[in-house]
């Protein structure tokens, strides 16, 4: 996974807000990476509606 790639949210690992749940199945663009809880890296994804949020890498799949 690289910055600028299109990704699809295919699962959610934790309980999250309804706003984040609404992104399930949506495609967005990876904008940056950030450290999560010290044991992994998350990706900040921006969607078509210009909203963005971060996800664990295993919650995303690269769109081919």
From TrEMBL:
It comes from the Bacteria. It holds the Pfam family Tsr0524-like. InterPro entries: Tsr0524-like. This is Cytochrome b6-f complex subunit PetP.
